[in-house]
Design a protein that fits this description.
With about 475 residues, this protein is an alpha/beta fold. Helices cover about 35% and strands about 20% of the residues. The protein folds into 2 domains: about 150 residues, Rossmann fold, CATH 3.40.50; about 300 residues, P-loop containing nucleotide triphosphate hydrolases (Rossmann fold).
């Protein structure tokens, strides 16, 4: 190994001390266990802020209470001398015997340091935490001290006074949002020339299947769409992958007038893929990503109505979303749960109007159809989902990018027998504080479910709302 390689490896293994900001623990209560063999330092001001934020039913308050329980378990039976020496933290990496071995240590602010900040005036909580990080850096000259915070401004202030600061990245599902798979791949131009000779094909009722053996299929997974990148090319969905052999099925073409879904036809390839997932009875969980105007909600509602009213596969449609306003909050809303949620469900009403217009008949027939649709579509709040079980329901979660991974898990685990869950969203439009494209709940489930045979994902890329909306998306 070269000298440069040895020095790089040694620097990665160098022992470090991480000072945690309050917002990190509020965001991820398990953060104290996420720093491998390195030490974790919690200032007293952080403990005070955690105590102030423990009351309430919000996600942050629940996380604070969980942090307090973790700290209480670590301190059970510990003496003052043991606390001063640092409490051993269980490692997230198990040893050869499969046991979690102690690695880093947890330290609290148990002794006073010179934490004055001559460059920064004020006595705020951020300055107190920053002062502790600076004092720790001066005291531990042989140890690299890093302040970990979700607060960008605090990290900027830390850089100004010479304290190394980093964002908390352990909650990220992927390194870069561009690495998130789209659910479909284009086949090479010579794919059928090189792999078509030994291909097998057969028909089961109206379904056409193909079996291909090639090294390239090792990277494929169930419900991945593969297609020829030219007009009228084959569009297939992967049903099974075993070693070098993949079983594929010809997709249903919802772009023609022969297979409309509640009067809605796909306008592009990605929309056709989405309708194949939404209408497939073998797929229980569907995620659809795409910018505004790509038809996510319209296609999902059409598929839900077709399977609820026509095929009678589901008893009703349940639609919900996170109640985060785009601008200033309009205040408290009167009425029942459904009436309170209606202002947040403007997209539902708009799309129901479009679907109702596609039905035949006069105004009376449309009014009757609208009443029927409203009776089979229930609007529910996420705040009351805990403890519920949905049986034979078509559940639509709109604006799913605003959910945390923990909230997403709480919702998906509500599904009972016969229920299908669809998550819609655009990860470039996140309104929840401290959530990013790589750490939001929608990215989390897309990444975790993409190899399960009963889940499917597709990313929509082309807007179909109007030429004005398309131009605005590109130019503004």
């Amino acid at each position: 190994m070269s000298e440069r390689g040895r020095s790089a490896r040694a620097s990665r293994r160098a022992h470090r001390t991480f000072v945690l900001d309050t917002n990190v623990l509020m965001h991820d209560p398990t953060a104290i266990f996420r720093f491998a063999e390195h030490d974790v330092y919690i200032p007293m001001r952080v403990l005070e802020e955690l105590d102030a934020g423990k009351k309430g039913v919000s996600e942050a308050a629940r996380n604070v209470r969980q942090v307090s329980r973790f700290l209480d378990e670590l301190m059970q039976g510990a003496s003052k001398a043991q606390i001063d020496a640092g409490l051993p933290l269980p490692s997230v990496v198990k040893n050869v015997n499969g046991e979690a071995s102690a690695s880093g240590r947890l330290y609290f602010e148990t002794q006073s340091f010179d934490s004055t900040l001559p460059e920064l005036p004020g006595q705020g909580a951020d300055n107190a935490i920053l002062g502790q990080a600076l004092a720790l850096k001066r005291a531990l000259k042989k140890t690299a001290v890093t302040l970990v915070s979700k607060d960008i401004n605090l990290r900027i202030k830390a850089a100004i006074i010479g304290v190394n600061a980093e964002d908390y990245r352990n909650d990220q599902t992927i390194e870069d949002a561009d690495l998130l798979h789209t659910g479909s791949i284009a086949l090479p131009a010579d794919f059928w020339d090189t792999h078509g000779k030994e291909m097998q094909s057969w028909k089961e009722q109206s379904r056409i299947f193909y079996r291909i053996t090639a090294p390239v299929v090792r990277d494929w997974y169930p419900n991945l769409f593969v297609y020829d990148d030219y007009s009228a090319g084959l569009e297939l969905i992967v049903r099974e992958v075993v070693g070098d052999t993949a079983t594929l099925e010809l997709t249903v073409d919802y772009r023609t007038g022969r297979h409309p879904v509640w009067g809605v036809a796909a306008r592009n390839r990605e929309q056709n893929f989405a309708l194949n997932l939404l209408m497939d009875p073998e797929i229980d969980f569907v995620t659809v990503l795409g910018p505004a105007g790509t038809g996510k909600t319209l296609m999902t509602l059409a598929a839900g109505l077709a399977q609820t009213l026509d095929a009678r596969r589901f008893n009703e449609i349940i639609m919900t979303r996170v109640t985060i306003p785009l601008g200033e909050d309009i205040g408290f809303l009167p009425g029942t749960e459904e009436e309170k949620m209606e202002p947040w469900m403007g997209a539902l009403m708009d799309n129901l109007e479009v679907l109702n217009q596609s039905q035949e008949g006069g105004n009376w027939a449309r009014a009757a159809t609208n009443d029927l649709l409203r009776s089979r579509i229930k609007i529910r709040s996420l705040n009351f989902m805990r403890g519920r079980t949905f049986l034979n329901r078509f559940v639509i979660l709109d604006e799913a990018q605003n959910l945390t991974p923990k909230q997403m898990k709480a919702l998906v685990t509500r599904a009972g027998p016969g229920t299908k869950i669809i998550c819609l969203g655009n990860i470039s439009q996140i309104d929840t504080p401290y959530l990013t494209e790589t750490s939001c709940g929608l990215t989390y489930v897309v990444n975790r479910f993409h190899r399960w045979r009963h889940a499917g994902h597709v990313t929509l890329v082309r807007g179909e709302r109007s030429r004005l909306a398309d131009y605005a998306s590109e130019s503004l």
